[in-house]
TrEMBL record:
Pathway membership: Lipid metabolism; fatty acid beta-oxidation
Single Gene Ontology MF annotation: carnitine O-palmitoyltransferase activity
Similarity annotation: Belongs to the carnitine/choline acetyltransferase family.
Stored SUPFAM superfamilies: CoA-dependent acyltransferases
Topology in the lipid bilayer: Multi-pass membrane protein
Keywords, alphabetical: Acyltransferase, Fatty acid metabolism, Lipid metabolism, Membrane, Mitochondrion, Transferase, Transmembrane, Transmembrane helix, Transport
UniProt keyword Disulfide bond, yes or no: no
Descriptive protein name: carnitine O-palmitoyltransferase
Length: 760
């Protein structure tokens, strides 16, 4: 109870002599400093709003406009063409004011209006510039004069140092493609997968849809696009993620791994201290908008940063029909899980972020705590990993048993925390007698763990293993993998290269020994909550997942580029060749592409199994070696990727048309069939976004392993890959064991196909 007494600023007791008041000056000082930090954040937000509000100009530009107007008036010229005089007549000024003051004030009002008009004009021009996407389709080395002029203008507008969200209001809205174009591209994408009779049937369905229901649905969609910031994103978040009633573990959440060869420290508490510090430093940059806006690699073209807003202090709250994303403005603590116990760990004291050494000290207290879990506490996290509705509704359980008393307070501590931390009791990583199997077990541990030792509803959970290895598991509804990958890159680099460790593996810095002990969360969980039922569902799902992680070191993007082929296209074609050799045919292939060139953009599907890629694979299998076919397939893939990025994709448009049809209560055989087609090969690239943080020449062992996800189809593969440097590609493959799609098979096929394709 000593910590509780320290938190009380004053106490009083009533005695016969009167009231005995006892002040705790230390507690009052803590309250004062915490209040100062809060006000500093408010002032910083107000300052940033002003800077963003006038972007691409600067607040100081008002002074130049005002001085220019006053200077011209001093030279007996009226730049306003009579507007200053009219403003002068309508100003409610006292007659006692002098004529010169009267005129100057009118001139300042006019200068302000002119300045605001110029800002709106500049913003409109920037929006027009960012709406130009033809630059993506220019051939390498053959840039048109229009694109050259456009590049110059974009650089001119980007000369100011923008804040994280400065470009948001200047980003264009996602356009609605013409329905005829979408249907034409869809039919082209399924042609290599269908027999002639099947293709004719699908063509008839598409034509019937276009001539009847399609145009009606399109009109509603265009109306929404005029009103909404992004006609896809809100429906995508709600219907694909939040309304999903199956387990989000494995099916939705994804993971990120630590360095492949290096573990910066073997001390678990120290690794936790630096990792938590790095994450909170990143949050500070996000809150202050000090992060540079993400851009298309190698260009000045900004990408939407809206997904960063809900990165921290966010949780997915269960509902009966749909979940809700809850975000809090700030949180000064993290939730920690260790050996079945939950703790609330304050990471700020008197408005000051604890040092890495202090956080390590607090983490060590949790590791050394001998208290056992309370009844029902150890496996409580299984409520977030099981079905959202079908078996034991998490929403119903939450409302019935966690809406009041100690359970509500403890649950609030987890949900309102900055993020969730698991201090795992196992060792993970590649080291050991079985490095291949160890990597696979490492991936499975991050993807689902024990099904109850992660809080899958949190925006992300950090896992620190007993041997110092780390990783994270991220909830998918609030953001896509590139946003989390950017955070994780910064965390790994800051941990290893900036914060560092002492020679004995501990964090640097001093420790305030008066820090209160981490607060143990208290629960009163009745047996009726039936956590075991949710755990059984989650365990069945986890046991059915096969994961395989393998680094490919024979060559990387450097050698692929020498063949004048896009590395991503090369990998995608090789994956299709591997699937063809493994399963004896082609399948609908999903590759994730971003649409963050547009405001609130998320993802689009690249249907990378094309007529051109299939033609090359068939020729290769028949013994015909034609480099021209490979290059044609590569160019087709690049074009599909560019179209998806620039708003001319297929699947998000058809998805939104389907949502409109459901709102109108009408059925479409075409849309129903299209949206039920399985993605048996689901792929995604995780590019390294901040190469400047990793010096691979001087520190070649600090190689990122990337991350992965579970299989999308029960009878398919999930493949994630990351191109690291010039000479390495890391793969993460997942599948369902019951489907007999074995990940090791696809590994051997991928490696085989890489070498086969490269020979030609």
């Amino acid at each position: 109870m000593a910590e509780a007494h320290q938190a009380v600023a004053f106490q009083f007791t009533i005695t016969p002599e009167g009231i005995d008041l006892q002040l705790s000056y230390q507690a009052l000082n803590l309250i004062y400093r915490s209040g100062v930090r809060s006000w500093k954040k408010r002032v910083s937000r107000m300052r940033n709003r002003v800077i963003k509000g006038v972007f691409p100009a600067s607040p100081s530009s008002w002074l130049f406009v005002a001085i220019g107007i006053l200077a011209t008036m001093y030279m007996q010229s009226d730049p306003s063409m009579g507007l200053i005089s009219k403003i002068q007549q309508h100003l409610p000024l006292s007659q006692t004011k002098g004529w010169k003051q009267f005129t100057m004030l009118s001139a300042l009002v006019f200068s302000t209006l002119l300045w605001l008009s110029l800002i709106l004009a500049l913003r409109f021009c920037l929006k027009l510039l960012l709406s130009y996407h033809q630059w993506m389709f220019e051939q390498h080395g053959r840039i048109s004069n229009t694109t050259k002029i456009w590049v110059t203008l974009v650089r001119l507008f980007s000369s100011q140092k923008p804040l994280l969200y400065s470009y948001q209001t200047s980003l264009p809205h996602l356009p609605v493609p013409a329905i005829k174009d979408t249907l034409s591209r869809y039919l082209e994408s399924v042609r290599p997968l269908l027999e002639d009779t099947q293709y004719k049937r699908m063509t008839d369905l598409a034509n019937q849809f276009e001539s009847n229901l399609g145009n009606r649905l399109q009109r509603y969609l265009k109306l929404k696009a005029l009103w909404a910031t992004n006609y896809v994103s809100d429906w995508w978040e709600e219907y694909i993620y939040l309304r999903s009633r199956g387990p989000i573990m494995v099916n939705s959440n994804y993971y990120g791994m630590d360095f492949l060869y290096v573990t910066p420290t073997p001390v678990q508490a120290a690794r936790a201290g630096n990792t938590v510090t790095a994450l909170l430093l990143y949050r500070r940059k996000v809150n202050r908008e000090e992060l540079k806006p993400s851009r298309v690699p190698g260009t000045d073209i900004p990408l939407c940063a809206a997904q960063c807003e809900r990165m921290f202090n966010t949780t997915r709250t269960p509902g009966v029909e749909t979940d809700v994303l809850q975000h809090w403005q700030d949180s000064e603590f993290v939730a920690v899980y260790h050996r079945g116990r939950y703790f609330k760990l304050w990471v700020y004291r008197a408005g000051r972020l604890l040092s890495p050494r202090e956080i390590e000290h607090q983490m060590q207290k949790i590791l050394d705590d001998p208290s056992p879990p309370l009844p029902g506490e150890e496996k409580l996290g299984a409520l977030t990993s099981g079905d959202r509705y079908q078996v034991i509704p998490w929403a119903q359980t939450r409302k019935q048993y966690f809406s009041s008393g100690v359970n509500k307070r403890s649950l609030d501590a987890i949900e309102r925390s900055a993020f969730f931390v698991t201090l795992d009791t196992e060792d993970q990583g590649m080291e050991g007698d079985d490095p291949v199997g160890n990597l696979d077990r490492y991936a499975k541990s991050l993807l689902h763990g024990k099904c109850y030792d992660r809080w899958f509803d949190k925006s992300f959970s950090i896992v620190i293993y007993k041997n110092g290895k780390s990783g994270l598991n991220a909830e998918h509804s609030w953001a896509d993998a590139p946003t989390v990958a950017h955070l994780w890159e910064y965390t790994l680099a800051t941990d290893a290269f900036q914060l560092g460790y002492t020679e004995d593996g501990h964090c640097r810095g001093e420790v305030d020994r008066s820090l209160p002990h981490p607060q143990r969360l208290v629960w009163d969980i009745p047996s009726e909550t039936q956590v075991s039922s949710s755990l059984a569902v989650a365990q069945t799902l986890a046991d059915d997942v096969d994961c395989h992680v393998f680094p490919f070191r024979e060559f990387g993007k450097g050698r692929i580029k020498k063949c004048r082929i896009s590395p991503d296209a090369f990998i995608q074609i090789s994956l299709q060749l591997a699937y063809f050799r493994d399963r004896g045919g082609f399948c609908l292939t999903y590759e994730a592409s971003m649409t963050r060139l547009f405001r609130e953009g998320r993802t689009e599907t690249v249907r990378s199994c094309s007529n051109e890629s299939c033609a090359f694979i068939r020729a290769l299998e028949d013994g015909e070696v034609r480099m021209q076919l490979l290059r044609r397939a590569s160019e087709k893939h690049q074009n599909l990727y560019r179209m998806a990025m620039t708003g001319a994709g297929i699947d998000r448009h058809l998805f939104c048309l389907y949502v409109v049809s459901k709102y109108l209560g009408v059925e479409s055989a075409f849309l129903k069939e299209v949206l039920s087609e399985p993605w048996r090969l689901s792929t995604s690239q995780t590019p390294v976004q901040q190469m400047e943080l990793f010096d691979l020449k001087n520190h070649p062992d600090f190689v990122s392993l990337g991350g992965g996800f579970g299989p999308v189809a029960d009878d398919g593969y999930g493949v994630s890959y990351i191109i690291v440097g010039e000479d390495m590609i890391n793969f993460h493959v997942s599948s369902k064991i019951t489907s007999h799609f074995i990940c090791v098979n696809i590994k051997s096929r991928v490696c085989e196909c890489f070498l086969w394709v490269l020979k030609f």
